[in-house]
Write a structure and sequence with these properties.
- By secondary structure, the chain is α+β, with helices and mostly antiparallel strands.
- The protein is built from 6 helices and 7 strands.
- Strand 2 and strand 3 (about 65-75) form a beta hairpin.
- The protein starts with a strand and ends in a 5-residue tail after the last strand.
Length: about 180
């Protein structure tokens, strides 16, 4: 049985967080590192630690202190293009808390880490007071993604992709709560 510590990332956590994130984009998504999509992974301090309304959380394994999961939030809504114009208008930057980089190492999945990380980020968004909605997009084929996000929110747009890998991208709105 593992015990985990969920907390805001510090500069000392960034190398471990970066490894978890890069492993996910290569292993789970098959895209590898794409600079226009993943710049925040390379410099998470600038993306999540420096801006006051952004956050990066980590889950560490209490046995050895290693980072085993990440979750981030920023104030950027989905961009148009590549997303549909109506989606960008529904979730404008500045008013939208976008959940990002919710990744758990495979050997630590199915232990509630993603759900706990997201709960902490939703509380961060509530306390901020300036967010009116919470948005995220997920690859339909990512392990466990659909089940988690469908249990926490509702699909507002489904972009299907035919061919190898299939699935496409699902866009979700997550209730912020009380």
């Amino acid at each position: 049985m593992h015990d985990y510590c969920i907390r805001p990332a510090t500069p000392d956590d960034l190398d471990g967080a970066r490894v978890v994130m890069l492993d996910a984009v290569y292993r789970d998504f098959g895209t590898g590192y794409v600079p226009c999509w993943h710049r925040d992974i390379i410099d998470p301090a600038a993306a999540y630690l420096a801006p006051a309304r952004h956050a990066l959380l980590v889950a560490t394994d209490e046995r050895d202190g290693s980072v085993v999961a990440t979750a981030a939030l920023d104030s950027r809504g989905p961009a148009h293009p590549p997303n549909p114009r109506w989606l960008a208008e529904r979730f404008p930057s500045g008013e939208t808390a976008q959940l990002r980089r919710v990744y758990v190492r495979p050997e630590h999945r199915r232990r509630g880490l993603a759900r706990r990380l997201v709960a902490e980020l939703l509380e961060f968004a509530r306390v901020d007071g300036g967010y009116r909605s919470v948005y995220l997009h997920a690859y339909a084929s990512a392990p466990g993604a659909q089940e988690l996000w469908r249990s926490l929110g509702k699909v507002v747009c489904e972009e299907r992709q035919d061919g190898p890998g299939g699935g496409g991208i699902l866009h979700f709105e997550i209730p912020m709560g009380p």
